[in-house]
Amino acid sequence: MTERSAGRIEVREETTDGSAVARFAVTGIEGLPADLRDRLLAIREKAGFLPNVFALLARRPEELRAFLAWHDALMEKETGLSRAEREMIVVVTSAANRCLYCVVAHGAILRIRAKDPVLADILAIDWRKAPLTSRQRAMLAFAEKLAREPWAVEERDIAALREAGFDDEAIWDIGAITAFFAASNRLAHFADLRPNPEFFTLGRLPCPRP
């Protein structure tokens, strides 16, 4: 079970059904460099739990640091794409790659950022049936093609994004987010990483009031 304290996180090693969180051992954060330990404590404090991906990557501190830096550079800015639109890309492309962990985890984040308890589920099953703008449809069509058939992307696909109103920086973001999470999806598959149970209800129910 996960315990909270000022500087300690005891990592859950099994899911609620008793199966392992991942194919490889997950570790606590006590042995991490101070910057990484403080970052994971801040994530835990904000979310109320430590996402399993960070517990898994804690086994390789330099890879964890690089993962966090690239993630933040792509996902924590508002220019060109909204934060909710960035999460839409993650959900749709992770669904294309059949990544349980990323669909569940980023579906939860999308529910919060879009303030919509339903949209993420529709996107994961069939994004074409979701209530989206024409701009968002162009974005997701391109992202899905890049995820499924990267060799088939051609100039007319980029032109379609420009026609939908995206500038080159936003187009780069769409492609880079898709590429980053293609790597994340494959890491999760390789490690057989399971989502935290907290993700399944996050953003679906109102937060309890004190």
Describe this structure in words.
There is one protein chain. This protein is 59% helix and 2% strand. It is mostly helical and 210 residues long. The protein folds into two domains: 72 residues, Up-down Bundle (Single alpha-helices involved in coiled-coils or other helix-helix interfaces); 111 residues, AhpD-like (Up-down Bundle). A two-stranded antiparallel sheet has the order 1-2. A hairpin with a 4-residue loop joins strand 1 and strand 2.
Question: Summarize this, please?
Answer:
With 210 residues, this protein is an all-alpha fold. The chain has ten helices and two strands.
Write the layout of secondary structure elements.
Layout: E1 3-4, E2 9-10, H1 34-47, H2 52-57, H3 61-75, H4 83-96, H5 100-114, H6 119-126, H7 134-148, H8 155-163, H9 168-191, H10 198-201
Antiparallel strand pairs: 1-2
Keywords:
single chain; 210 residues; mainly alpha; Single alpha-helices involved in coiled-coils or other helix-helix interfaces; AhpD-like; 2 domains; two-stranded antiparallel ribbon; 2 strands; 2% strand; globular
Given helix and strand content, the structural type is: mainly alpha
Helix content: 55-70%
Low-confidence runs of at least 5 consecutive residues: 1-6
The description of the largest β-sheet is:
2 strands, antiparallel
User: How many DSSP E strands?
Assistant: 2
Distance between the termini: 24 Å
Number of domains: 2
Mean pLDDT: 91
CATH class label of the largest domain: Mainly Alpha
- Approximate strand percentage: under 5%
CATH topology-level fold name of the largest domain: AhpD-like
Radius of gyration: 18 Å
CATH architecture of the largest domain: Up-down Bundle
How many alpha or pi helices? Answer: 10
Element string (H = helix, E = strand) = EEHHHHHHHHHH
Look at the structure and name the CATH superfamily of the largest domain. AhpD-like
Biggest β-sheet: strands ordered side by side in the sheet = 1-2
Shape: globular
